[in-house]
Automatic annotation (TrEMBL):
The lineage of its organism: Bacteria, Bacillati, Bacillota, Bacilli, Bacillales. GO terms for biological process: amino acid metabolic process; carboxylic acid metabolic process. Signal peptide: none annotated. Keywords: Decarboxylase, Lyase, Pyridoxal phosphate. PANTHER family: GROUP II PYRIDOXAL-5-PHOSPHATE DECARBOXYLASE, MIP05841P. The keyword Lyase applies. It comes from Brevibacillus parabrevis. This is Amino acid decarboxylase. Its cofactor is pyridoxal 5'-phosphate. GO terms for molecular function: aromatic-L-amino-acid decarboxylase activity; pyridoxal phosphate binding.
Length: 475
């Protein structure tokens, strides 16, 4: 049977194929509790390209046979590595329809899909308590959102020096000064991609035993570089301890100094959803550009994030694509003229579904519930003989380490942390990732999944204790 005929046959029997996909999906969700949270991947023999193809049903069966059972339960309640949300039921429905509708979101002229993205951005502005002068667009993740924000900052700084860097390049400019207290690694990656360079980052001292920038030290830096346009990268939720820079205090410095304020609020921006935590993002409305991730606390499928800006014209300067078929970058810039990608999938739809389905109250519940389970785990660690808490549990991340009971004279190494986490992963009940906090090897437990409840903390704690006992026996 010719390949086209097999495609036609699949189309004619599409209901059967999609029903089988639904069955596989329901089986996956039903088995999340039994599936290892971090699957130990083993190298498989590479499948050769079929000469004629198997058809859709046979391809699905082959995938189930080879790979489906070996995927991890990262969608489940005890995947605490990185900051990974679990897709809400409504967002899954929206994500499936993204593939069904297969819209090209490079513009807004040929489909209502573009207006759905604009509407979704407007709802997210409300969720994050941002004023209407912020525009936004979906990108693939926080790294790309940081890239978009810093690209605008680069354009702004160059203009201050009489250069249109988007057209003329960086080479006639002195190095751009970037200042931050505890920047995420994606900031360095963005600086590299933008040609600004990782070494342009000036690390400003943080407050004692904090990851929040020292405002007096930042003021001194800005005073030293008063005659140069600078970029300040502020944090609204650091990855190790969910610490927040004083955004309002940083914004007040703008009255004395010229700088671009980019706020990396990848998951910490969601503090705005809760009256208990919204004070943490006071001043966010004064940012020039903002990064917020969607596949973290918005709990939509990978890959999805939002970038917000108060300087849309600068964004167009950087990302406009001078092709007649893409339309006018000035009259109608959405979306190919605002983001690095010309080809864009309908990323807004899962977010639209989830926001419509659960509203502000739903996201308030997720944030406060995740903060509560993080607090519970932090309490267990603080009272433990095996582990020690390295920082206060401020929101949804617990930063801790191992106690050395029998070899106190030896300092803990990253190899110790890696060995322990390897044992924890093999246990299969929970997954966490290593980090380095204030020069010490550490462990992060990041809670951002809507499924996680108090009972999961009991399972997590037992897994930690069992793994520590095994780790100790191994020496």
């Amino acid at each position: 049977m010719a390949m086209v005929s097999k495609m036609q046959a699949d189309q004619q029997d599409l209901a059967a194929l999609l029903n089988r996909v639904v069955q596989e999906s329901l089986q996956f969700f039903a088995g999340l509790e039994e599936r290892p949270v971090a699957a130990q991947a083993k190298t498989e023999a590479v499948e050769s390209l079929p000469s004629d193809g198997r058809g859709g049903l046979q391809a699905l069966e082959r995938f189930q046979q080879l790979y489906a059972k070996k995927l991890s339960a990262s969608a489940g309640p005890r995947y605490l590595g990185f900051v990974t949300g679990g897709a809400t039921p409504a967002s899954i429905a929206g994500d499936w329809l993204v593939s069904v509708y297969d819209q090209n979101l490079s513009g807004i002229s040929d489909s209502i899909a573009g207006y759905v993205e604009l509407e979704t951005i407007a709802m997210l502005r409300e969720l994050f308590l941002l004023p209407d002068d912020f525009s936004g667009a979906f990108v693939s993740g926080a790294t790309m959102a940081n890239f978009v924000g810093l690209a605008q900052a680069r354009q702004w700084a160059a203009r201050k020096q009489g250069v249109d860097v988007a057209n003329d390049g960086l080479y006639q400019l002195p190095p751009l000064k970037i200042a931050s207290g505890a920047p995420h690694s994606s900031i360095y990656k963005s600086l590299s991609m933008l040609g600004i360079g990782r070494k342009s980052m000036h690390l400003i001292p943080c407050q004692p035993n904090r990851e929040a920038i020292d405002i007096a030290a930042l003021r001194a830096f800005l005073e030293e570089h008063r005659n140069e346009p600078c970029v300040v990268v502020a944090n609204a939720g650091t990855v190790n301890t969910v610490d927040y820079d004083d955004l309002a205090a940083i914004a007040r410095l703008k009255s004395d100094y010229a700088f671009w304020l980019h706020v990396d609020a990848a998951f910490g921006g969601f503090a705005a959803c809760s009256p208990r935590f919204s004070h943490l993002v006071n001043g966010l409305e004064h940012a020039d550009s903002i990064t917020i991730d969607a596949h973290k606390w918005l709990n939509v499928p990978y890959d999805s994030a939002m970038q917000f800006t108060r300087h849309k014209s600068l964004q167009v300067d950087v990302f406009q694509n001078n092709a007649a078929y893409l339309g006018s970058a000035i009259a109608q810039p959405e979306f190919a003229h605002l983001t690095p990608e010309n080809s864009r999938r309908f990323r807004a739809l899962p977010a639209w579904f989830s926001l419509q389905a659960y509203g502000r109250a739903g996201y308030k519940e997720i944030v406060e519930s995740n903060a509560e389970v993080a607090r519970l785990l932090g309490e267990k660690i603080a009272g433990s003989d095996s582990f020690e808490l390295l920082a206060p549990v401020r929101l949804n991340v617990v930063c801790f380490s191992l106690k050395r009971k029998t070899r106190a004279e030896e300092s803990l190494t990253m190899n110790d942390i890696t060995r322990f986490l390897g044992q924890l992963s093999r246990d299969g009940r929970v997954f966490m990732t290593p980090t380095n906090y204030q020069g010490s090897p550490a462990i992060r437990a990041a809670f951002s999944n809507w499924r996680t409840v108090g009972q999961d903390v009991d399972v997590i704690w037992q897994a930690l204790c069992d793994s520590f006992a095994e780790y100790s026996r191994e020496g």
